[in-house]
Design a protein that fits this description.
Largest sheet: none
Number of helices: 8
Structural class: mainly alpha
Helix content: 40-55%
Radius of gyration: 55 Å
Shape: rod-shaped
Number of strands: 0
Order of helices and strands: HHHHHHHH
Strand content: under 5%
Amino acid sequence: MNAAIPLADEVEDLTDEQIASLLKDAELRLRAAEAVPNTSIPKLSSFKVPKLHIQNVPRPYIPSAKNIARTDPSLLVSQEQRHLSSNPRRVEDPTQLKQAIQMIKKATAGPDWFNLPKTVLTSELKRDLQLLRMRSVLDPKRHYKKDQGPLKFKPPQFSQVGTVIEGPTEFFSARLQNKQRKKNFVEEVLYGGTSRFKSKYSEIQEAKTSGRRGHYKKLMAKRLGKGKKALKIF
């Protein structure tokens, strides 16, 4: 049962009975509000706390042993950071690093050519390349493709010299003896050259020595030999 709320000017005229009735009404309203369940707040019984796996729990940074807390230094800093801090780091100039990479790339012909190294021109290699360039002189019966390059000798930018090794089935058919093995092409040609090459070499040497003392002595020996034979015949 609700009583009328008195105005501000009538508060002084309230009797003890009216004050008691107001307090009673307020107490009834509080009990009614507590009796109505609040659906907006979930009950704690609906929540399920997951179980903890002891094996997957990380080690604490500050373990305690015999009521004494101690810090584990291995967990504070990782092994990678410890390695970086203990070893000095080398700071390289990006321009010099780029130049070094370009020099490495220019040192070979690239992966498309199996990283063929740059040519190191030595005197032996230069003679071999000149011999290959003039290979048509050694045997006139063999015809090779003409070199369309410049007349002046120019070595290749990338090259590599190797040794041909016979297979295990060619022991009797294609095996070279040790005395037949030579270091370069020039020695092989000089060792087993054709008769034309030998005659050409003798012609060149005779032309070079013409007019000298050795050439004159040979010429006189031939003439005297022919004269003696002629005298003996007559």
